[in-house]
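hey
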């Protein structure tokens, strides 16, 4: 619990920078809009029980050999031999209900790995943005918005979401002071909020996914409030926050 009357919210553009921003008190929000955190939120909304994020394809393969349901993506493409890639549409329907799913992605699971020892790690996407911001404010703790980026480089869609969270939290509460990175992303979001899809038109990963005929994924991942589930990291796996609170 922060002891100053003013809470802090900041943004980290890449897992590579996380050592500079990390502290022991903040709640870390993992952001990978296209598409890891969007896919994770979708899986929980469709009934998944638990999601185990792993950093490497080899780890994912060892879980598959043990009989787990596994999703693996690299460079936007589903890895051969796994049930799922990283499309949110793969994580809809009965097949994920009550399942434990293992996933590894190019960037999103790396960010989770980087922040795994933080006070609290939660998953953010446009799909759960309102529920996430309401909960963050209720916790009255410092917040760090960790953008997964693309292979440790800045990417526009994660930055946009971090800006959207900063904007929404500023509208909901005056208790937070924005760090410079967070302020920059809030201004960025204010420029884009009328039409984020258009604003992202030439972003690298959006163009990459479009080349892979995944425009449907892009549109869905930019949709607000498709779920009120907040995935939280607990004992190395992602579960519903509600399950943690009632445990
Ligand atoms: C990631 O986790 O690196 C991204 O979401 C990649 C993708 O899904 O295309």
């Amino acid at each position: 619990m922060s002891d100053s009357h003013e809470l802090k919210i900041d943004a980290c553009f890449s897992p590579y920078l996380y050592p500079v921003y990390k502290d022991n008190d903040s709640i870390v929000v993992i952001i990978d809009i296209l598409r890891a955190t969007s896919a994770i939120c979708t899986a929980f909304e469709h009934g998944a029980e638990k999601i185990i994020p792993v950093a490497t394809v080899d780890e994912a393969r060892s879980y598959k050999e043990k009989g787990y349901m596994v999703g693996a993506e690299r460079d936007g493409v589903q890895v051969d031999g796994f049930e799922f890639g990283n499309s949110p549409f793969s994580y809809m329907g009965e097949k994920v209900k009550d399942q434990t799913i293992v996933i590894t992605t190019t960037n999103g699971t790396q960010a989770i790995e980087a922040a795994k020892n933080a006070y609290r790690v939660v998953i953010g996407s446009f799909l759960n943005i309102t529920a996430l911001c309401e909960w963050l404010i209720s916790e009255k703790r410092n917040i760090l918005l960790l953008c997964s980026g693309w292979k440790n480089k800045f990417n526009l869609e994660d930055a946009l979401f971090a800006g959207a969270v900063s904007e929404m939290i500023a509208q909901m509460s005056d208790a937070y002071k924005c760090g410079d990175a967070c302020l920059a992303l809030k201004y960025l979001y204010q420029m884009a909020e009328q039409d984020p899809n258009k604003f992202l038109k030439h972003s690298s990963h959006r163009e990459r996914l479009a080349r892979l005929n995944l425009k449907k994924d892009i549109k869905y991942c930019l949709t607000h409030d498709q779920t009120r589930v907040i995935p939280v990291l607990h004992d190395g796996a992602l579960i519903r926050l509600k399950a943690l609170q009632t445990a």
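The longest helix spans residues 156-172. The first strand starts at residue 7 and ends at 12.
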